[in-house]
UniProtKB/TrEMBL annotation:
Organism, as annotated: [Clostridium] clostridioforme 90A6
Record-given protein name: Uncharacterized protein
Length: 108
């Protein structure tokens, strides 16, 4: 999979006092377009902390996942399909753009 760099649409700065725990709220995850109901990876690198969805499901809105479940598709199946197509498209963001262009619709 390609190394994809994305820029946040809006930068949020949060200040904390040394010794205070770092808290990541559901609202913060949603603002970063990460589904708060899915697992995340926390990557510690020199000078930064990166929080990203463990799977493609973390990038999909919960309402969309629930719709797939109502249609009889398990989250595992949805993850498998979206992951395959995202890899073929060059990443999740590229897949979303490709679908929008082909279908001329807003996905979510």
């Amino acid at each position: 999979m390609k190394n994809m760099k994305t820029e946040p649409s809006e930068k949020t700065i949060i200040y904390r006092t040394p010794g205070d725990p770092i808290e990541i709220t559901d609202e913060m995850l949603e603002n970063a377009e990460i589904n708060p109901n899915e697992l995340v990876d926390i990557i510690l690198q020199k000078g930064c902390i990166i929080i990203k969805p463990t799977s493609v499901l973390g990038r999909l809105p919960e309402d969309l996942l629930l719709l797939y479940e109502e249609l009889g598709f398990s989250r595992e199946m949805v993850e498998c399909v979206f992951t395959k197509y995202a890899e073929e498209a060059g990443g999740f963001d590229a897949l979303v753009e490709q679908i929008k262009k082909e279908k001329n619709v807003a996905l979510w």
